[in-house]
UniProtKB/TrEMBL annotation:
Signal peptide as annotated in the record: none
Protein name: S-adenosylmethionine:tRNA ribosyltransferase-isomerase
Pfam families named in the record: Queuosine_synth
Organism field: Streptomyces koelreuteriae
Keywords: Cytoplasm, Queuosine biosynthesis, S-adenosyl-L-methionine, Transferase
């Protein structure tokens, strides 16, 4: 059972932090830090002094796609959110309706055979729902020029109604993003890594913190639906598996940057806790019952409290720490969503207290 958390509308980050005032960079967000049930308030620039030599950060290198494309069903305008490319050439897509404010609202999926006209002579035909749980996402066959070219020419980043305006794709790329040779990527930004800058990464490396890159191409997560995550493509390369295992053997803490990194590395971990190179699809949902085998802590954004997200936090930090963290974030007026503040969950138990740094 996950707690009901209502996030006031005014706590939604409507624009990126670097657009909120002169001289601000991506790393100017606030950072709530949880150790057990102890909570402290920091800025993200303080991350290097909160970590120690031998710690390892698992980062997701998936690049964000310009995954929203305007289309038409008959004379009706729709917006197609391209979510995930399948092994058979099809794409999992979500059809949404324009809301007149530059964003979209939910739309009933289907039916089978629905044809969507897209720019550049591309046609998309819905074939079957992605799963029996929901009719929101559908597998669709795309006829015409390739989807990668379509997104480059006519796509824009997926944007939800809590944001103020459209942003260029560069705003949605993290410092770790690497374009994929086959055009694959994430429909929505792996946003926990957004505050990292090249300067901060260099400082962390200089302090002896390791980085292990993994890839998980995340699909769309509708603002209205809190379904368990669907299977997603991931890869944990051999070099990263070795780094993670070496850090654990040397007493370092393995800290995942984002829930996508947790899902990837835990999907590559055996019951013995050893991480092995692996690539393919993962349907893993991390729950307190399943637990975590490798990850000691997590850097995550503040998002709407989806059940799967809260269950993962509970698996890593424990229920009391998770609830205390959300309570402190609301009390401290932290900002939510992909342009908002972040939450660093570190291992360790501590008294129930709130401490503030002097920043």
């Amino acid at each position: 059972m996950t707690p009901a958390v209502r996030v006031p509308e005014e706590l939604s980050a409507r624009v990126p932090v670097e657009q909120r005032g002169p001289g601000l960079g991506r790393d100017a967000v606030r950072m709530l830090v949880s150790r057990g049930s102890e909570v402290a308030h920091h800025t993200f620039t303080e991350l290097p002094r909160l970590l120690r030599a031998g710690d390892l950060l698992v980062v997701n290198t998936s690049a964000t796609l310009a995954a929203a494309v305007d289309g038409w069903i008959g004379h009706a305008r729709v917006v197609v959110h391209f979510s995930t490319s399948g092994d058979d050439g099809r794409w999992a897509v979500e059809l949404r309706e324009p809301d007149g404010r530059g964003t979209t609202r939910a739309r009933a999926g289907g039916p089978v055979g629905t044809e969507v006209r897209l720019p550049g002579g591309v046609r998309l035909v819905l074939e079957e729902p992605l799963s029996g749980r929901s009719g929101r996402l559908w597998w669709a066959r795309v006829a015409g020029p390739g989807v990668a070219g379509l997104l480059r020419e006519h796509g824009r980043p997926i944007r939800y109604s809590y944001t103020e305006r459209d942003q260029p794709l560069s705003v949605y790329q993290t410092v770790f993003a690497l374009p994929s040779a086959d055009g694959a990527g994430s429909a929505e930004m792996p946003s926990a890594a957004r505050p990292f800058t090249a300067r901060l990464v260099a400082e962390l490396v200089g302090r002896g913190v390791w980085f292990a890159p993994v890839t998980l191409h995340t699909g769309v997560a509708s603002a209205e639906a809190h379904e368990p995550p669907y299977p997603e493509r991931f890869a944990v390369p051999a070099a990263s598996a070795r780094l993670i295992n070496a850090a654990r053997a040397g007493g370092g803490r393995v800290l995942a940057v984002g829930t996508t990194a947790v899902r990837a590395v835990e999907s590559a971990a055996g019951a013995d806790g050893v991480v092995r190179p692996r690539a393919g699809w993962t349907g893993l949902v991390v729950t307190p019952e399943r637990g975590v085998r490798v990850v000691d802590g997590l850097l995550t954004g503040l998002h709407e409290p989806e059940a799967s997200h809260l269950l993962m936090l509970e698996a890593i930090a424990g229920r009391a720490a998770m609830e205390r963290g959300y309570e402190a974030a609301l009390q401290g007026r932290y900002l939510w969503h992909e342009f908002g503040d972040v939450h660093l969950v570190l291992p360790g138990k501590a008294p129930h207290a709130v401490h503030c740094s002097s920043n």
